[in-house]
Amino acid sequence: MVDSEKLAAPVPATDAEGKLLLSADEARDLLRDCFAAFEDRLRSLMRMSVETTNDLFEMNEFVNEANVQDFRLKRKEWIARFEQALRELFDKRLSGVRRQGRRPDFDASINTLRVLNAFDQERQAALTKAANLLHRTTKREVDALDLRVGVLLQQKLTRDIDNPFSPAYILDAIGVACRAVYPNPRIWRPLMERVIADLTPGMSRILINANRFLAGRQVLPEIKAELRARSELRPIDDSDLLPVFTQLLKEAAPAGADALLALGIDVPAASGATSGRPARVAAKTPAQSIPPAPPKSASDRSTSASPQSAPPSGAAVAGAPPLAARSAGWNPYAIDIAQPHTAPVDAPGTGSALPQLDPMLALGTLSEAITALDRWQRADPGVESDLAEAQAASDESQVPLNRIPMISAAIGDKAINSPEKITMDVIGLLFDYIFRDPSIPESLRGLFTRLQVPILKTALLDRSFFSDKKHPARRLLDHLAAASIGATTDSGYGAALELVATRVIDELCRDFKVDVAAFVGADAKLQEFVDGEQRKLAASLNTEVAGVFAAEEDDADRSHVRAFIRDELSGVNVPFDVRSFSETTWADYLTLLRAQHGTESAAWRGAVQTLEDLLWSITAKEGPAQKARLAKLVPGLIRDLRAGAAALGLDDDRMRPFLDAMYQLHMAAIRPRADAPEQKATTESVPVSIAPMQAEAAPASDSMDMTAADMGDSSIINIHDFVSEMVVGTWLRFEQDDESIDARLSWISPLRSKYIFTSRVRTQAVVVTPEELAWQLGIGKTRLIVEPVPLFDRAVSAALDSIAARKPHSEETAAA
Questions:
Q1: pLDDT at 290
Q2: Domain 691-786 falls in which CATH fold?
Q3: 744-776, pLDDT tens digit by residue?
Q4: Which of 174, 351, 678, 687 has its CA 20 to 30 A from that of 506?
Q5: Could you say which DSSP state residue 487 is in?
Q6: What are the DSSP E strand ranges found in 708-812?
Q7: Angle, CA 219 vertex, CA 481 and CA 532 arms, to 5°
């Protein structure tokens, strides 16, 4: 058995719901530890930037030689003042004082008023542009860090969290130091511009490591995955979710939102395809075609209606024409609602001697619509047997029928208020996504078909369905979707899940009237099955975990070094030759030094500095001072690299290919950017679900050109960073020996040297290092299925983005 104390994860700082589990003092101590590492990395960047400012005032007629000499003499003072300002701002924030939105040393006295000439205006504009670029390039990491810091500071989570690690605080500290040491604006403005420009390429790495530090302490460990799946349009507080949908629907279809039910929902590529079909299939409304029936799963074949409530679901709808005679707009719900119906009566022996008040009477104008939904919940006319014939002729047989548009058309005049109509539209859009989510096997999508009417009825009855993250109906959807992932890998598990889920859904459809507590019981029964499977998995995983943990403990030095190098290479696109050398040869050398001398030795610090110099040397050099520093650095760098290789017994012949590649990279670094050779696209052969990640193969550059990642795009850009931060619960598809294995990340070793993935077939486990996994993802041998983000959240974000993309102004913008 595995020693539970050795394998114990750090005490979680937040629970599964994101609630802080630490005391206020413990949370502040954690932030101070994070800030210490953050400050150390930032200090190194600042020093390197200031050291290469000898060319800052060349050809500047407004700064004389005496000013230049004074500037150079005070550079160490500037660094000390920057560190002091940054620390003061951090301590002030931890004490509860928030940033005021203006620079800390703001001076409104008349002495500060000056007339700006053209040079001053140009420098101010350049400074503003550089600051904006810093904000944009760090947005992805800052968004995650904002939420983590906000939780630790017990601040209400909004889009404007006062985060002392953010670029705003760093810019404040830079500005305070510049103006304190160099009062002349014609000195401090160019200095600020240069420092910010030098800081921008490396700032993402600093923020990545701050995020990893807090994630390692279990502060919202899944937040990055959630942000990747989250629409920019989704409000922070779900109580604003329905109003946002309402506004978007009105903007997208001012004449009426009914047409939006034909939009179809874009399924994010990050979920990965589970079959050869397209990820997005346009939805069909009754006005477009004969609606196909859902697949004949066990959930649809079962009949849960009591004899007193309605005819069985397989029976033909009264008054329905033969299949051949039906028009494209045929709607079984409209036919059913036009028929006379008697109120259901209690089965014999279940009645009460006292008069019973019909709960529908308390619903006011909604009572007629809810009564119809209650009837269809027990016996859905949309699953009659004749529709199966239309299904057989459909080209989209793998996508179940979204019945919400037909239901909306049938009871639209019964839900007379606009909010109820909007609610039906939104539920229709959510199911449009659910039926196309590739993480849910096609064979199990029929289970969700039976939930359409109960979920719609819940949303109409209880507005907290949209605002409450813990709503039992949302939880049931999320848990059923999570249990379905990878179910086809093990036929026994898939059959057992379908049996349990069918029984749970049948009971829900039978018992749910107006009290959403029925979903609590349904979810509990489903979770009982899931928990049982998890216990079996944990027992079967114990041997694998013990072996991996023992190996990591035996080779702790190498495991620590690999983790260190992953952090050093984070946030930048590292050329293949440099990454390969760093993760193999230099990792071996650092492991040797760590074992022999420790991490406090001069030898270790020197080898770490060599790695940092190597990474800096291959980035583009913009000014004469940077190029001069590179020319001075290269001879010593090559000497140190050769010495490290020699310590491992590698001769110059083994090193020559790498050194030749380094020569080419150094030449490219000093070449003007316009003359740099164009890089051939390498994403064409990569699976679409991770194609954006292949950008990792591009050479490193300090270029200020924006990328999708810089602009906050939710796609995964850097494979290695994604793998290094992968969280438990992520599902991948591994291609092994002519078979595909869908497996879930179930365990990560303490130093993240090994990941263990398990499939529903508990005898199949995949043990892999982060480096191996990144390579497999890069060549398409492994694919991402889905990250641990609840189904409801994925569906909401996809629906918001799809509606926004179809707003009229979007077409005008595209045309322009």
A1: 30
A2: SH3 type barrels. (2.30.30)
A3: 999 999 999 999 999 998 777 899 999 999 999
A4: 351
A5: G
A6: 731-736, 739-748, 755-758, 765-768, 782-786
A7: 35
Residue 489: CA count within 13 A, CB half-sphere: 27
Of the given ranges (95-109, 486-500, 671-685), which has the lowest mean pLDDT?
671-685
Give me 451's structure tokens: 């939930």
Q: What is the mean pLDDT of residues 174-185?
A: 94
Per the structure block, which two tokens stand in for 631? 């020319």
Please report, for the chain, how many H helices and E strands are present, in that order: 32, 5
**Residue 431 has which token pair?**
């199911």
Q: How confident is the model at residue 702 (pLDDT cuts 50, 70, 90)?
A: very low
DSSP string across 109-171:
SGGG-----HHHHHHHHHHHHHHHHHHHHTHHHHHHHHHHHHHHTT----SS---TTSHHHHH
Separation between Cα atoms, residue 344 and residue 309, nearest integer Å: 5
**Cα angle vertex 657, ends 652, 663, to 5°?**
100
Buried/exposed 492-507: b ≥16 CB within 10 Å, e otherwise: ebbeebbebbbbbbbe
CA distance 296 to 446: 7
> Which residues are CB-contacts of 778 (< 8 A; sequence separation ≥ 6)?
686, 690, 693, 694, 696, 697, 719
- Expressed in angstroms, the distance from the first to the final Cα of the chain is 66
- Give the tens place of pLDDT for each residue, 323-369: 444 455 678 888 888 888 776 555 444 444 555 545 555 566 678 88
DSSP H or E stretch at residue 86: helix 75-94
For range 302-327, the mean pLDDT:
43
Question: How many Cβ atoms are within 10 Å of 546's Cβ, its own excluded?
Answer: 15
Burial zone of 679 (CB within 10 Å; 0-12 exposed, 13-18 middle, 19+ buried): exposed
- CA-based max dimension of the chain: 103
Q: Is the pLDDT reported for residue 10 higher than 80?
A: no
pTM of the entire predicted model: 0.82
Task: Find how far residue 222's CA is from the centre of its chain.
Answer: 8
**What was the pLDDT predicted at 363?**
62
d(CA 382, CA 402): 10
Q: Which amino acid, 252?
A: A
What are 28-37's pLDDT values in tens digits?
A: 999 999 999 9
Question: Which residue is it, tokens 């000093």?
Answer: 670
Domain boundaries, the chain: 24-107+115-221, 238-271+286-337+376-538+798-815, 572-675, 691-786
What is residue 783's DSSP assignment?
E
Q: What is the dihedral of CA 346, 352, 354, 359, to 10 degrees?
A: -50
CA dist 652 → 33, 511, 529, 763 (Å) = 42, 78, 61, 47
Dihedrals phi, psi of 229, to nearest 5 degrees: -90, -10
What's the whole-number average pLDDT of the chain?
80
Closest CA to 509 of 293, 235, 310: 310
42-72 pLDDT, tens per residue? 999 999 999 999 888 888 888 899 999 999 9
Of the candidates 679, 665, 669, 667, the one whose C-alpha atom is nearest the C-alpha of residue 620 is 669
